[in-house]
Design brief:
By secondary structure, this protein is of the alpha+beta class. It has helices at residues 56-69, 83-88, 106-114, 119-130, 133-147, 169-182, 256-273, 367-380, and strands at 2-10, 29-34, 40-44, 78-80, 103-105, 194-197, 205-208, 220-228, 232-241, 244-253, 274-280, 287-292, 298-302, 307-312, 319-326, 329-330, 338-346, 349-358. The chain has two domains: 2-12 and 279-380, D-Ala-D-Ala carboxypeptidase, C-terminal domain (Peptidoglycan synthesis regulatory factor (PBP3), Domain 2, Sandwich); 29-253, DD-peptidase/beta-lactamase superfamily (Beta-lactamase), CATH 3.40.710.10. The protein contains eight helices and 18 strands.
C-alpha cells in the first residue's frame, strides 16, 4: 500500500489585491531568480546576448577567490604593477589609480576591483596570478564552463569593449549564485560602499561603490554594475531578507538612475509576490518511515540535496507537501537506498518530487520471527 504523511500545509487568507501582475521592467533584458530554489520569477529576453561590461569582474574575482580558498595564494601576497596595468588608469576607464612598480596586496587589488571597479586592478591581479591577462582569461573561461555558463565567453578581465566578451543575464545570474554560495566570506567585499587607496605620488583617493542600491538599507548586499556605450547600463544585484535571497540581473537600462530604480523594482516585486519554503536540508532533516520485517520498526530518511520550493503568494492556500512511499518498506534496507519521496502540490498539480534515502542499514528479522509477524498481520491486520 502507499502511505502518505502530510508534512507541511500552508494556509493564508490573502486579500485579492496582494499579488500583482509581472512588473514592467524598462530594460533590454532581465531576469529574477530565487537563490534557494533556483526558480525563475521573471525573465525578459533572458538569453539575449549582451556585452557584460564590468559584470565581467564577478568572474575575475571568482577565479581569485577559488585560488584563495585552495590556499594557492593569500590576501597578503603582493603584486608588482606593470606598465600595461598602469596604462589602464590613464585611458579614461574606471580605475583604482595604481602606479608602475607599486607592490600591492591581493586584498587591496580585490577591493579595487569590487568597490572601485578598477580596470587597472583587474589587469594587475591577472598578471600577478597567471603571468599574463590572457592566461588568466583562460582560467575565467574554464570556470565559466564548469559553472555551466553555456552562452558566455570572456575576452578580458575587466569587461572593456571587445566583441568576444559576451554573456546573457541568465548566465550572469548563474555566476552570481555560484559566487555567493561558494565564497560567502569573500562575498562580504561586495557590500562595501567605499574603498580608500593610499596611492603612490598623491593623496589617498576614496571611491564609492557604483551600486547605489547598497546605500538604500533595503537588504541589497551586491553585486556589480556595468556600463558600455554599446550596451548602456547593467547591474547584477542581490537582496537578502531574513533567510531568503533573490538575484536580479538586467542590461540595457538607459541611465544609471533607471538601472537602480528598475532593479529595485524587480527585487521588491519578487519579495512581495512570491514566497520560498524550506522542504528539507541535505543530510539533516529526518523523515520517519515505517518498515516491515526489519529489526527496526521505523527508519529515518533524508534528502541528498537541500530542497526548497518557491510559489506565488496567491497559491499559498492550495500548497501542500506530503511524503509518499509504498510501505511499510520491506527489510532488508541498505543505507542510501531510496525509500520514499516528497511530493509538493498546488491543488492537484504536482510541482516537485524529491527522493528520500535511508540513513542507515536495516537488517531483516530472523526467519521464525518473520513467520510470526506475517501470521499476526494475516490474522489481525496489524504488523
Amino acid at each position: 500500500m502507499i502511505d502518505y504523511l502530510k508534512i507541511l500545509t500552508v494556509f493564508f487568507l490573502l486579500s485579492i489585491n496582494l499579488v500583482s501582475a509581472s512588473p514592467n521592467i524598462e530594460a533590454r533584458t532581465a531576469i529574477l531568480v530565487d537563490y534557494q530554489s533556483d526558480k525563475i520569477l521573471y525573465e525578459l529576453e533572458a538569453d539575449h546576448s549582451i556585452h557584460p561590461a564590468s559584470m565581467t569582474k564577478i568572474m575575475t574575482t571568482i577565479v581569485v577567490f577559488d585560488l584563495l580558498s585552495k590556499n594557492k595564494i593569500s590576501l597578503d601576497d603582493k603584486v608588482t604593477i606593470s606598465e600595461k596595468a598602469w596604462r589602464m588608469s590613464q585611458a579614461g576607464y574606471s580605475s583604482m589609480f595604481i602606479m608602475v612598480n607599486d607592490e600591492i596586496s591581493i586584498e587591496n587589488l580585490l577591493r579595487g576591483i569590487i568597490v572601485a571597479s578598477g580596470n587597472d586592478a583587474c589587469v594587475a591581479i591577472a598578471e600577478g596570478i597567471a603571468g599574463t591577462e590572457e592566461n588568466f582569461v583562460s582560467m575565467m573561461n574554464e570556470k565559466a564552463q564548469e559553472i555551466g555558463m553555456g552562452s558566455t565567453n570572456f575576452a578580458n578581465t575587466s569587461g572593456i569593449n571587445n566583441p568576444d566578451n559576451y554573456s546573457t543575464v541568465r548566465d550572469i545570474a548563474l555566476m552570481s549564485k555560484y559566487l555567493i554560495k561558494n565564497y560567502p566570506n569573500y562575498y562580504e567585499y561586495f557590500k562595501e560602499t567605499e574603498f580608500t587607496w593610499e596611492r603612490t605620488g598623491g593623496n589617498p583617493i576614496t571611491q564609492g561603490n557604483r551600486n547605489t542600491l547598497l546605500y538604500k538599507n533595503i537588504g541589497v548586499d551586491g553585486i556589480k554594475t556595468g556600463h558600455l556605450v554599446v550596451e548602456q547600463y547593467s547591474l547584477a544585484s542581490s537582496i537578502k531578507k531574513k533567510t531568503r535571497r533573490l538575484i536580479a540581473v538586467g542590461s540595457g537600462f538607459k541611465t544609471s538612475a533607471l538601472r537602480a530604480q528598475q532593479s529595485r523594482k524587480l527585487l521588491s516585486w519578487g519579495l512581495s509576490n512570491t514566497e520560498t519554503f524550506e522542504i528539507s536540508k541535505k543530510n539533516e532533516t529526518n523523515f520517519s518511515i515505517n518498515t516491515w520485517l526489519g529489526k527496526n520498526q521505523t527508519i529515518f530518511g533524508q534528502t541528498k540535496e537541500d530542497a526548497y520550493i518557491t510559489i506565488d503568494k496567491k497559491d499559498l492556500r492550495n500548497f501542500n507537501t506530503f511524503i509518499e512511499y509504498t510501505g511499510p518498506v520491506k527489510a532488508p534496507i541498505a543505507k542510501g537506498q531510496e525509500i520514499a519521496s516528497i511530493k509538493v502540490y498546488i491543488k492537484e498539480d504536482l510541482l516537485k518530487t524529491i527522493p528520500v534515502y535511508a540513513t542507515k542499514k536495516v537488517n531483516k528479522i530472523n526467519f521464525l520471527l518473520s513467520l510470526l509477524t506475517s501470521f499476526n498481520y494475516m490474522i489481525w491486520g496489524d504488523a
